[in-house]
Amino acid sequence: MSNKEQEVLEKYISQHNLKITKQRRAVLEAFLNCEDHVSAEELYKIVSAKEPKIGLATVYRTLSLLTESGLAAELDFGDGQKRYEMNYAHEHHDHMICTECGKIIEFHNEVIEKLQEEVAQKNGFKMTSHKLDLFGICKECQQ
Amino acid sequence: MSNKEQEVLEKYISQHNLKITKQRRAVLEAFLNCEDHVSAEELYKIVSAKEPKIGLATVYRTLSLLTESGLAAELDFGDGQKRYEMNYAHEHHDHMICTECGKIIEFHNEVIEKLQEEVAQKNGFKMTSHKLDLFGICKECQQ
DNA sequence: CTACCTGCAAATTATTTGCCTTAAC
DNA sequence: GTTAAGGCAAATAATTTGCAGGTAG
């Protein structure tokens, strides 16, 4: 279990005088093996299977750590809870969210990206990040 | 005060067997006169000036009513609270959010809109709405 | 051993709901 | 006069924090 993600996390941890614990390893491992776009609560349930005594607060704290270390990215689809996805060695993409079944389809469009940069520049705006979400009904849910 | 927005709201209200009250009028009026992208709490403070006995719950309830009636649109910039903007006789636009000062710049780019439609279609996705937010530093905050 | 980390419970924050009184129609 | 609306306080829901004991380095 000495994969790239472990390395990145441990590098961040040692650079910040923090400690590697079995709870942090467990959360990271569960996060890597679960489907994308998990919520804290969902991840908590998954981790609990392997580490029954872990607390929900620890999952929240570890997700913050993963976000700060650059391994995870926070998502917010406006449903009242934050979701997280893998962000390391993962190229940028946007989301289509099916409002029927909740499925999330990822996509990437270089031209849209370029145009966003252009719009920002035209307004003297120094863009640091962006998000594009399309809401609608996926193919399957249309019957 | 018999403007278009009042008419739209009153039409919605009568069609749904609801009632026109001075609180609802006050919230709508404050909403129309305030800057875009208010939160419920902000609007509550504004309305309180004219209608001191109004409750925060009423502001929330009226904002839902405005959203259902199509007058307002909910926004979520991921800062933990919903914001609202005028949505009636207001063409679609996207947002640039300054992460320094919180300022919001609106923009509209037809080509981006078209490309979004294309991406959706290519995936058999029936898009009902979308949101594009650019985060960064505005011209003023760069000095 | 010295911080940092954890689990737990309590605190917070934004928003919603229950209930009883009041006001629209 | 019905019935929805309002005010207020209590309830939720997601997330954060305080603290006392546990553990990594």
TrEMBL record, chains A, B:
Gene Ontology CC: cytosol
Gene3D superfamilies per the UniProt record, alphabetical: 3.30.1490.190, Winged helix-like DNA-binding domain superfamily/Winged helix DNA-binding domain
Main location: cytoplasm
Entry's Gene Ontology BP terms: negative regulation of DNA-templated transcription; negative regulation of siderophore biosynthetic process
List of residues binding Zn(2+): C98, C101, C138, C141
GO MF annotation terms: DNA-binding transcription factor activity; transcription cis-regulatory region binding; zinc ion binding
Residues that, per the record, bind Fe cation: H92, D94, E113, H130
SUPFAM superfamilies reported for this sequence: Winged helix' DNA-binding domain
Keywords: Cytoplasm, DNA-binding, Iron, Metal-binding, Repressor, Transcription, Transcription regulation, Zinc
Required cofactor names: Mn(2+); Fe(2+); Zn(2+)
Subcellular location: Cytoplasm
Cofactor note: Binds 1 Mn(2+) or Fe(2+) ion per subunit.
Matching InterPro entries: FUR, Fur_C, WH-like_DNA-bd_sf, WH_DNA-bd_sf
Subunit structure: Homodimer.
Recorded family membership: Belongs to the Fur family.
Name this polypeptide is given: Ferric uptake regulation protein
Species of provenance: Nitrospina gracilis (strain 3/211)
